[in-house]
Amino acid sequence: MITEIKYKKQICDMGKRIYEKGFVAANDGNISIRVSDNEFLITPTGVSKGFMTPEMIIKVDGQGNVLEGIPPFRPTSEMKMHLRIYQVRQDIQAVVHVHPPYATAFAIAGIPLDQAIMPESVVYLGTIPVAEYGTPSTNEIPDAVQKFVHHHQGVLLENHGALTWGKDLEHAYYLMESLEFTAKINWIAKQMNGDRELSKKHVQSLVELKTKMGINSKSPIGAETAEGIHAQKITPPLEQSLSEHDINLIVEKVTKNVLEEMKKLF
Ligand SMILES: [Zn+2]
């Protein structure tokens, strides 16, 4: 049984990681962990997440009442957003909210990450929708996020940043890293007018693989693409430039990498 102090240290280490990674500036971002059915550890407001110490971390209940905390530290103003996710998904143990530059740019542009451009994002991440803008600290953001919590692993917060949730803190963080990486690659490919999607057939194979691997997050990328919703974005189709054999080799190679990454997580 992991002790609370270990969880607090994990949060501090993760704060350092998101700060050094450039996912947050100044005092931005917040992190939380569920420690029991109705107790949560959460980062304080007004503090750089890169320089936190365990005594700064606050314990709250599901209603947001402070159970333990040393003044002057108070819970993040985005606490309601974290608590809503825990309330809706009992299986979720950690939530990460940051402002990574590429993902935040997509959030500002209102563009979801829903193109099947890389096997990793189809298998591991799934679609990342945009949750409608809400005023920070009100119930508007939790309400906007709630509709996506069951079927997705994260969202872009319109004109704001990104949010992921996972079975533990490491998982929630890797989803965020993957989300930002997907946004970055997507943006670079767009500059080359080359954001071609995988064909319906290959997306379908990846979705089947995902099911076999027991990843139960929804992958609307596959479902939508299989129905042809994104078909108009495939210009030119991947098959025109690569042979069937080449594609199979690429899918096989990337699948192997994804499986190796997944082993680290589960
Ligand atoms: Zn924020």
Can you put this structure into words, describing what you see?
- InterPro entries: Aldolase_class_II_sugar_metab, Aldolase_II/adducin_N, Aldolase_II/adducin_N_sf.
- The two termini are 18 Å apart.
- This protein has a domain at 77-191: Class II aldolase/adducin N-terminal domain (L-fuculose-1-phosphate Aldolase), CATH 3.40.225.10.
- α2 (79-88) runs parallel beside α5 (140-149), α4 packs parallel to α7 and α7 packs antiparallel against α8.
- With 266 residues, the chain is α+β, with helices and mostly antiparallel strands.
- The chain has helices at residues 4-20, 79-88, 101-109, 119-125, 140-149, 169-191, 200-212, 220-226, 238-241, 244-265, and strands at residues 30-36, 39-42, 58-61, 66-68, 94-98, 130-131, 154-157, 161-166.
- A hairpin with a 3-residue loop joins β7 (154-157) and β8 (161-166).
- An eight-stranded mixed β-sheet has the order 4-3-2-1-5-8-7-6, sandwiched between helices.
- The structure holds zinc ion.
- Residues 28, 97, 99, 160-161 line the site of zinc ion (ZN).
CATH topology of the domain at 77-191: L-fuculose-1-phosphate Aldolase
Strand order of the largest sheet: 4-3-2-1-5-8-7-6
**Major sheet:** 8 strands, mixed
* Count of strand segments: 8
User: Any idea what the CATH superfamily of the domain at 77-191 is called?
Assistant: Class II aldolase/adducin N-terminal domain
Identify the overall geometry.
globular
Helix fraction, binned, reads 40-55%
Low-confidence stretches: 220-242
Q: What is the number of helical segments per DSSP (H or I, 4+ residues)? A: 10
User: Order of SSEs, N→C?
Assistant: HEEEEHEHHEHEEHHHHH
Radius of gyration using CA atoms only: 19 Å
